[in-house]
Design brief:
By secondary structure, this protein is α/β, with parallel strands linked by helices. It has two domains: 3-174, Alpha/beta knot, CATH 3.40.1280.10; 187-248, Helicase, Ruva Protein, domain 3 (Orthogonal Bundle), CATH 1.10.8. 43% of the residues lie in helices and 10% in strands. The protein has ten helices and six strands, in the order E-H-E-H-H-E-H-E-H-E-H-E-H-H-H-H. The protein has a six-stranded parallel sheet with strand order 3-2-1-5-4-6. Strand 4, helix 5 and strand 5 (112-116) form a beta-alpha-beta unit. Helix 1 packs parallel to helix 2, helix 5 (96-104) packs across helix 7 (148-163) and helix 8 runs parallel beside helix 10. The longest helix is centred in the C-terminal third of the chain and has 19 residues, at 230-248. The chain is elongated and about 70 Å long.
């Protein structure tokens, strides 16, 4: 896989050192060079993790740690989250062919990311809303939950297969999806814009403290579906600042 096609691999609150070590080995197997861990609940440099990583121990040692997923994705434009949930209507899910083709179609130099959740409960709805696309692996409805390292293996195998497909090939070669080459805004810029908007909407009474979270989640989902760009984020942020100034201006 070319360096341009290598996403960051992000694990959210991994609890099992054996899983972390196995994922590091998988990353090396499929040519990924960067691992980010969000609030790990295990020693990712301990003996168990190192034993499972085998020759990928240097990747474990280079792993970056973050306090939350938002911080881990702040410099990324395209983000795909992997989820085994079948009960969420808030976040549209799609098969690997669509989500990963979109991830690989990035043209900008900013990093892309592939995100996996906790072993016991996956990713929350709020965390899924930080991703531009949500990937759902096809498993039996009676037991849909996969081991973390198994899910990573399947996703990375599909990513490598799709990366080998000629971008100019017919859409059928990409699983029926036409590559989307319009890059979305940096996650950090979008989150800052949403924070500005939330503050203003609370100030003018559109949002109420007890409903702010649910309403802003809907706004975030709307902007994700729209694939908002950096220029559009700057436009929204400018409008919010002008509205804040106008709302605070003294009236005669």
């Amino acid at each position: 896989m070319s360096s341009a096609a290598q996403p960051l691999l992000v694990l959210v609150e991994p609890a099992g050192p054996l899983n972390v070590g196995s994922v590091a080995r998988l990353a090396a197997n499929f040519g990924l060079q960067q691992l980010r861990l969000v609030a790990p609940r295990c020693d990712h440099l301990g003996e168990e993790a190192r034993r499972m990583a085998v020759h990928a121990q240097p990747l474990l040692e280079r792993a970056q740690l973050f306090a939350d997923l938002s911080a881990a994705l702040a410099d990324c434009r395209r983000v795909v989250a992997c989820s085994g949930r079948v009960d969420s209507d808030a976040v549209p899910m799609e098969p690997p062919s669509g989500a990963l083709t979109w991830l690989l179609a990035a043209e900008e130099a900013a990093p892309t990311a592939l995100v996996f959740g906790r072993e016991d409960r996956g990713l929350s709805t709020d965390e899924l809303l930080l991703a531009g696309r949500v990937l759902q692996l096809s498993t039996d409805d009676g037991y849909p939950s996969l081991n973390l390292s198994h899910a990573v293996a399947i996703a990375l195998h599909e990513l490598r297969r799709l990366a080998a497909v000629d971008p100019a090939a017919p859409a059928a070669a990409h699983g029926g999806a036409e590559p989307d080459t319009s890059d979305p805004a940096l996650r950090g810029d979008l989150e800052a814009s949403l924070s500005d908007a939330e503050e203003l909407l609370l100030e003018v009474g559109f949002l109420l403290p007890h409903t702010r979270h649910a309403r802003m989640a809907k706004v975030r989902a709307l902007l994700q579906r729209a694939r908002i760009t950096s220029e559009e984020v700057a436009l929204v942020r400018g409008m919010v600042r002008q509205l804040r100034w106008a709302s605070r201006r003294p009236t005669s």
